[in-house]
Specification:
This protein is mainly alpha-helical. It has one domain. It contains five helices and no strands. Helix 1 runs antiparallel to helix 2 and helix 3 runs parallel beside helix 5. It is elongated, with a radius of gyration of 21 Å.
Length: about 170
Amino acid sequence: MRGVPWWGVISSAAAPVLLIGGWTVAAGLQPRFDPVADTISALAAIGATDRWVMTLTFLLGFGSVPHFVFASLGFAGLTLWPAGAAKRGPAVPWGLRPAVAAAAVALLFALLAWFGTELILGAGQVGLAERVVGAAQAAWPLAVVLSCCLPVRAPVPARGANQTSTV
């Protein structure tokens, strides 16, 4: 793998598995939980059954203003990081190319906007929106690491670039 340390591969694969697995197990332990309408933060809130599952998954998960602030900062950072990681050059893996990074930021921002809209308007799908944006943000590092596994194609020279003219 081009420049990807072993711990990068493991952490990028573990993030979506732990996040999705954690919210799935925690939701299954709740007597009444609607995964479309309820947020994953509710799974770690005071009064939740076996809240330790999501608390352990989050390492910070209490229903409070600090949780909201830090969760918002985390969502924003995870949405913007592909732009900061973008690189140029013919040997750059596709997951780090500027156009792909810009598309990833646009998609993650659209999903984050959906979540924010659901959160503000209380339209009934805040839990679903949170899970979709969370899963997408957790899966993007894995997509980048996997793109590093693909062979690099040599750039095709422009037509006529290697030809010399004789006059």
